[in-house]
Amino acid sequence: MNTVTPSRPDHRPTSGEPGLLRQVFDKVVVEQVRAGRLRSKGLPPGVQPLVTITLVLYGVLAAVVITGGWVRRLFAVDSSAFGLPAELVGPAIAMTTVLVAILITAGMHAPWLLRAAGILSALLLWIAVWAATDPLTCVAAAIGLLVIIGFQVLRRSQAFVWWEYAVNLAVVGAVTVTSVVIALRPALLAGQTDPSLLITSVVLATVVFAIPFTISSGAAVTELAFSTSTWLVELFGRRYSRRTQLWLIVAVAVISWSVVLWRFSRSPLPLLPLTLNLLVTAVALACTAALWLAMDRYFDDRSRVAGLRVDNDTDVADLAASFRPLAIYVGIALSLPVSLNVIWSAMERGIAQLLAQAGVAVTPQDLATRLSRLAGLDDALSLTSDLLGAAIGTVAAVAAFRRGRRGAAELAAVIGFFCLLRFLSGLGMPFLDFDLNTLCAVMLIICTVVGLRWALQHRLTTNRLHALGVAMLLSAAVTGREILADPIGWLLGSTTGALIVFGLLWNLLTGADHANGDSPAFPRAGRTLAVVGYLTTAMLVAAFDSLAVTFAIDLDSFVELGAGVLGTALLLTGLWAVLDAGTRDAATVEARRFAPIGAPDPWLDHAATPSPGGGQAWSPGRGEQGSGITPGTRPDQPRNGPPPQWRP
Fold it and tell me: Which listed site, 7, 118, 386, 645, has its alpha carbon 20 to 30 Å from 252?
């Protein structure tokens, strides 16, 4: 079982203590921002101005996403392909050029994958604006590519200097302007080129780097709902009596059941398909529970055999921290086939233009069409995405498992399982594509049965009451995500745009902590420029998607993918974690969470010794008895050194 510290005795707020909502906001937002924000102190010279320029562009694009519907009305749009006015050609090319130069500069001081991504971004941009009918544009693109590669070779072992960006911007800008002036401008003036098609082609040059962040943005609201549920119940329980807590849980259950039953009553499906859907969903959830439980018990057994205290990440408050990097990695896997499709299409289109000049007629096709014909499946690309997501989830689970990171391993395994369900559903297996209402109903049934069992057995202790409250709120959050997103979407004119802006802003404010590090293989300058560059690139794609009447790529599907796969996996992992903690009558949130690291906390001066009746007996001591752990120290972090490396 997971070793967590039992809750402290009931605490009543004093006159100088912040209110409940203020405390929840501090835990959910303020502390996350403090820990994960980008820091300017210690940045290498020349990086700060580039970061400032990029973040200003980020803010402008976010404002465009928010006001996209109103901005679109300011321009007269004709019958162009995507409904983008010709006035946006210049801004689209300029902003894309600036961001491509940022990505190239970041890649110069990064591992080879990011280095290749930066070079690829320039190549895709030049393919979007070149004209194979004019040899000069082809020569300019080839020379520009060679200059960028040669410059990176010359600077590969050097520290960052500000003029690296100036060189990259000059090269990218020169090649782009050459193509625009020689070929595209005359074609636009003569009416031979659709401006909206040109804008879309330019923006799509960076879409391959934006899709992973779009997927993770879809899960950001779920992450916020997850953290809010955890801390709201925990802090509420420390301020109010058990009777008040019980009434709150009953109210949440009644409201959640009312919403679910109301939605089921409006479903067009007959009773039998609804029942079958519920049963299949229950079986799927039982599989995730069995997977979670098997890994959890194996961690416990191996830690006892090895005599080690492994990382207790199944503390619910820790799951969100493990979720963020997992969301990016799985998002990259899920978007990789789509990104390859965009790259393939651009390359094949450029080659077809060159062959046309040699008298060879070739009809370019995208990778999705070719794969579907080869595999004999209608949606081979989507199936490949799901299979890759399942593979990355499994690999991440094994990696975290071998490092003794309990919560990260369990969360990655559940994410991989949901990707596998999507893959099987895409192959045609019925009822596996269950909706959120069905999932919420099954989770509520589980919580209701467990709560009634504890109540009837007179085992509804304070810890179990907290666990039940968190479980109920997590179940309600499955459908409550829509309730949270819809008002924002109504205000901004687009639910998808609202989720993307919120998710990208949340990633920038809370997920940039790794950019504050430094290493010889990945210096801080490269980390910082990569974070702001790729997030701003994602915002660029979202901005033009909000301005277009129709867009070449469906961002809504990627947002829904992040919410449906990543977000739901987080909620389910949290559900099993809190119910397991309740079964053992342990706290859902560790004691170390209630004091800043290194700060004294009076109630932490007493070690918790669980009594047979519910874990409320307290004896003098400091930290956890016999463990040598001081307040603010992780259970796997000894005083005199780093945590032991644990392998199964």
Answer: 7
